[in-house]
Amino acid sequence: MLQPKPPRHRGIYLLPNLFTTGAMFAGFYAITAAINQHFETSAVSLFIAMVLDGLDGRVARLTNTQSEFGVEYDSLSDMVSFGAAPALVMYLWVLSSLGQAGLFAAFVHMAGAALRLARFNTQVEVADKRYFQGLPSPAAAAILAGGLWFSLESGYDPQNIKYLVEVVTIITGLLMVSNFRYSSFKEIDFKNRAPFNVAIIAMLIIAFVLAQPERVLFLMAVAYAASGPVITLVLRKRKLQSRKS
Fold it and tell me: Where are the domains of the chain?
């Protein structure tokens, strides 16, 4: 006698996917703001998308509501918020004045984000959880959004830095598909107790961000991007030393 098939659960977990939807909307809003020449709003919207993107995964783990749907939905949201949105914002801000070269630079960033997300999804089960392979797309978007915000606050003429913007946009795209290792910070357990000095350092970082968000966030993103080659060289050196010993 055939056993009846168990009923399939067609619903989705609402709470983490609300954060994912919010992140995607922030990326979409960044595009619409750039179309209307509100570039500072675009930069802030991209950073809001990063915060919401960081929260959805943590909320899912804390509430035990992880799902395959959530993983796929998060990747699609990341593609909008950290792939298409930064590329279009930079193109509308200054890269369009470079013609085909500017279009190429914007596409390299967007394509790099797509390839990085696809690679991440296929390697998520076998990859070392301590590191990301290639610059994470939110960090790449943070470099562009932070640079845009910093330039606007400093009063730079976009036409005077358009070639620098083009190079940086291409570099972010290439770093996302590189083999450089970036710390995932997943080994940090926020539920355990930490030394009092850690609280002081965290307080100082928050104070610096609130005082000059455009400058501090941009420098933090650049520093994280630069950490990849350093971490990769250190890991390779350790691997060679272990082989010799």
Answer: 14-187+195-244
pLDDT in tens, 117-173: 999 888 877 667 788 899 999 999 999 999 999 999 999 999 999 999 999 999 999
CA distances from 35 to 32, 64, 97, 125, 154 (A): 5, 39, 15, 39, 22
DSSP 99: T
Q: What is the pLDDT of residues 180-214, one digit of tens each?
A: 999 887 766 656 666 777 778 888 888 888 888 88
> What are the tokens at 150?
């910093």
CATH number, domain 14-187+195-244, options 2.30.30.240, 1.10.10.10, 1.20.120.1760, 1.10.460.10: 1.20.120.1760
Rounded distance between C-alpha atoms, residue 101 and residue 94, angstroms = 11
115/229 Cα distance (integer angstroms): 19
The model's pTM: 0.87
Per the DSSP assignment, residues forming a β-bridge with 132 are 182
Q: How far apart are CA 167 and CA 142, in angstroms?
A: 15
